[in-house]
Amino acid sequence: MKKQLLCIFLALLMIPVLLLAGCTSPSTPTPSNTAAPTATSTPGGSITPTQISQPTETTPEPVEKGTVKMVYVQWACAEAETHIAEAVLQDMGYEVEKQVISAGPMWTSVATGDADVFTTAWLPYTHEAYWTKYQDEVEDLGVLFTGAKLGLVVPDYVTIDSITELNDHKDKFGSRIVGIEPGAGLMIHTEEDTIPTYGLQDWKFVASSEAAMIAELTRAIEKQEWIVVTGWAPHWKFFKWDLKILDDPELTLGGSEEIRVIARKGFSEDMPEAASILSKFSLTDSQLGEVMYKINVENMDPVEAAREWVDANQDIVKDWTS
Questions:
Q1: Neighbour-count burial for 229-268, b at 16+ CB within 10 Å, e otherwise
Q2: Average pLDDT for residues 33-52, to the nearest whole number?
Q3: By CB distance 3.0 to 4.6 Å, which of 109, 227, 238, 249 could disulfide with 114?
C-alpha cells in the first residue's frame, strides 16, 4: 500500500515538468546570425550573380609589334629625323634600335638587311653613287624633306658671295676648306667636282667630322675670322649664326635635293604599318630646325627633344599614323 501511494505521488510531480517541456520549441537562428552562402556551384555548373566578381578597368598595354633597326650618320638633320621617327614608332608599339655609322655603311647595312631603315638619303645628287649601287636592293619609302641643299658656307661678314671668288682671297682663308666625314657625299663631290672645277687644287681640304667642323666655325666667328666650310641645309647652324651658302654657278654640288627614307628589301611586306608611317613621315624646314636647335644649341638630349616635339605636334603625327 505504501508503494502504491509513492508511485502516485511521483507521477503527480512529473505532470508540470512535461507540460513545461511541451510549451517550448527548438531555437532557430535569426537572420542576423545567418552566415553568407559559400561559393558552391549548382548541379548545372552555374553560379549565382552574387558570386560573380565585377571586372576592374585597366589601361591596355601597347601591343609589341616587333623591332625596327634604324641607322644614321651623326649629322644634325639625320639625328633629329631619326629620333622623331623613333618616338612615333614607339608610340605605335614598336621597339626601336638605333646605331650611328658613316654614310657608306649606312647604305650597305640596309641593302644587306642588317638594318631596316634610314631617314637621310640625299637624292638625286649627294648620294647618287650609293643609289646607283644599291637601288635594286632597297625600298624607297618616299620624301621626308624637300629643298635640301649642299654648298660651301661662310659667315655673313665674309665679303664674297661665290665660289669663283675664293682664289682672290685665299690668304684670308688660309687656303683651307674645312670638311666633315671623308665618306660623305658632300665631301666626295667637293673633292672630285668643286675643287677642280674652280681651280682650288692648291687649297688644303680638311676631312674631319661635323662636330669638328662646327667647332672650327664657332672659333672663327667668335674672332670674326674668315673661314669656309662644307655645309648643307637644313641645319641648325643657320638658325644660330648669320651664314650664307656661296653661289655655285657650275652646280658642282647639285641643285635642290630631297631627303628620302630608304628601307631594306621586304620591309614593307614584313612591317606594313611601320613602312606606311615612314612613307608619310615629312618635315618642313622650321619643324626640323626646331628639333635640331634644341639638340645642338640648347643641348637637350635628342630623345627628350624628339619626344617633346612629338607630344606637342600630335596633329602632324596623326597624318603620318592614320
A1: bbbbbbbbbbbbeebbbbebeeebbbeebbbbbbbbbebb
A2: 42
A3: 109
pLDDT category at 61 given cuts 50, 70, 90 is low
Structural domain contains residue 38: no
From 205, 221, 245, the end of a domain falls on 245
144 with 277, same domain: the answer is yes
Give the domain range for residue 169.
Answer: 149-245
Eight-class DSSP state of 162: B
- What's the length of the chain? 322
- Residue 289 corresponds to which amino acid? G
**What's the pTM value of the predicted model, to 2 decimals?**
0.74
Whether residues 163 and 224 share a domain: the answer is yes
**Residues 240, 157 within the same domain:** yes
Residue 30 included in any domain: no
* Alpha-carbon dihedral angle through residues 188, 232, 213, 106, given to the nearest 10 degrees: -60
DSSP run (H or E) holding 222:
helix 210-222
The owner of cell 565585377 is: 54
**Rounded mean pLDDT of 111-137?**
96
